[in-house]
Amino acid sequence: MDEVPGMTQVLGGERIPLDGASVVKYATTEQGEGPRKCYGDIESSFGGIYEGFIELAGQLARDEGHRKELDQLKQALPKLVAAQSANKARLEAIKSFADAYQCSTEKTDFREALHEPIATALRRPDIGGDPDGAVAKFERAITDARNINEGIDDEDEDLVVTQAGGAGAYQPPNSKCAISGIAVESIEDPVEDEKGYVYEKAAIEQYVRSHTGRGRGDTCACPHAGTSHQISMASLKPAKNFTRWRKVQARVAASRRASEGG
Q1: What is the DSSP code (8-state) at residue 13?
Q2: Torsion angles phi and psi, residue 109, rounded to 5
Q3: 3-state SS track over 124-140
Q4: Torsion, Cα of 128, 133, 138, 144 (10° steps)
């Protein structure tokens, strides 16, 4: 097993370094319950170790000034993944060897007998690769933490659009629905017209119905003061950009509250 500096694990009531020499020594002494139990105990510990790595990565990514520590953690992760792969391969080899082994009076070189089964196991993607997808989870944790700092998520990373004549990051052109008077942040079912003005769906649909038809055509004036464009039932669409913008604002506010301790 490749050494993972600083990593230890309690096995049989004794804390030992998580490296090949110590594990082999433990597994072959009377303190342990045999190699299979030893490697099995170590395998079951990796989930918790990875959780600690990923949680720490998220914390470092959220806090400013920890790039060096984050890089060190990132460099250590492949060693941990390699250690898990090596341990998993040994465990698999021991299981297959034990199932096929027949006791005899001849001397058996167990190290040599396990060499090929271990090598075979390491060629399996579910063993020799990244069995738990730890690297991908680690990178995802860093990305998520940084996105929280910036108030964005997966869908919001490209949310830089131009609406109603404005430029740069999206902002709704109106602060309230012109019909219901509800602040746009509180609208439960928002829709927008072709210029990006946001409305309460039920309110604006009722407005359009009452100002169209009966010989008046299917369009009517936008109810917002200072505008000159026409709206219709067909021009009203789900306010996707606005919904994403509102989600961003909520994330920013939550991140700010967390950083201020309340």
Answers
A1: T
A2: -90, 90
A3: CHHHHCCCCCHHHHHHH
A4: 160
Alpha helix ranges (H) inside the chain: 20-27, 35-62, 67-100, 110-122, 125-128, 134-150, 201-211, 240-259
Q: CA-to-CA distance for 217 and 204, rounded, in angstroms?
A: 17
CA–CA dist 106, 89 (Å, integer): 26
Angle at CA of residue 205, ends 202 and 211, nearest 5°: 140
| Phi-psi category of residue 125: left, alpha or beta, with phi > 0 → left and psi -120 to 50 → alpha | alpha
* Confidence (pLDDT) at 179: 95
Q: φ and ψ at 192, to 5 degrees?
A: -140, 155
Q: What are the residue ranges in the chain where pLDDT is below 50?
A: 1-6, 10-11, 26-33, 157-168, 262
Q: Would you state the structure tokens that stand for residue 167, as one six-digit string?
A: 């430029």
